[in-house]
Design brief:
Structural class of chain A: mainly beta
Oligomer: homohexamer
Largest interface: A-B, 41 and 41 residues
Helix content of chain A: 10-25%
Distance between the termini of chain A: 38 Å
Chain lengths: 69, 69, 69, 69, 69, 69
């Protein structure tokens, strides 16, 4: 499946914190930066996400803000 | 100002494409990856965004999805 | 690629309206309902979206609201 | 109240899973497809959402992505 | 229609800027603050939005960030 | 840091409800209106959010819908 989301960043899961409905996923990108995602527990399970798994962070362009110092 | 958004990635603007209301901004992150953002023209102007300017991509964790191959 | 977004609805593109940065895509789902999406022109081109093309509408669960009469 | 969100899909609540802050709501649309939503518990209560209740899934067009096989 | 979005702020439209696909709407809230929204042109027309019209800004809680100085 | 998000509304935290992953924050704006936000617990801690703290609600324009009666 090819998706319209313009930002697909390759990385590896480094931490999964589960709540009752949502989980927080920390990914480490190839350049070393970390990305934090909040998705449902059901998705964590269906994708088999846990520390060490290769995964992508996916973000729609309209959800990216820009900031300057 | 310190913001709750968990993802603040340092980079540099490499391209700005203006429409009537929104602009598309391409940022190159320090690791070389590119991030695409769509924001209003008014923000592009008030932040002085143009190619070469240092800037951050900012994304709320709930707007980050995860994918696996 | 398998994505964490919980809502992936099968349909067919029925209309594409292009702007300078974004396009509006109308999809007709298998049950006959229509879904409207706004994505960047670059994605419209890279996915080859035009009337008649089979496609999915994809929505992260945290972006779905609920309403009652 | 009439809202700007372009996607308002009629269905019925089939499942509510409550967490400490958010709940996951599963709706079944008229065509049989399921839609998953994550909203706050307060909204679940103020709207009286529980299995069997008629409800709409509401999504802003800019939050809909498109994918192709 | 009663919606799950937790933030429904009463105001008045003060400006509409149309693009090819999206419009930018500026609302003035009752306390004097301004809120900017970007929605599709089709919604602007179907809701009859123009300067002087009473309207609400509606925001899902998961789309609200918090910042401190 | 100056951010592209067009909506930055000054207020004060009046309530924080923590879950396992996310917290719900209620802010009271200067005009008396309340804004509800859902952010991660980590952000609540790193920003030191608790009742009485001055804070801003920040919303990207593309996440603001408009409604009329």
């Amino acid at each position: 499946m090819k998706i319209s989301a313009r930002n697909v960043l390759k990385g590896k899961v480094v931490k999964v914190t589960k709540g009752a409905v949502n989980s927080e996923i920390v990914l480490e990108l190839q350049g070393g930066a970390q990305i934090v995602s909040v998705i449902t527990n059901t998705s964590v399970e269906s994708l088999g996400l846990k520390a060490g798994v290769d995964a992508y962070a996916v973000v729609k362009a309209s959800n990216v803000m820009v900031a300057v110092d």
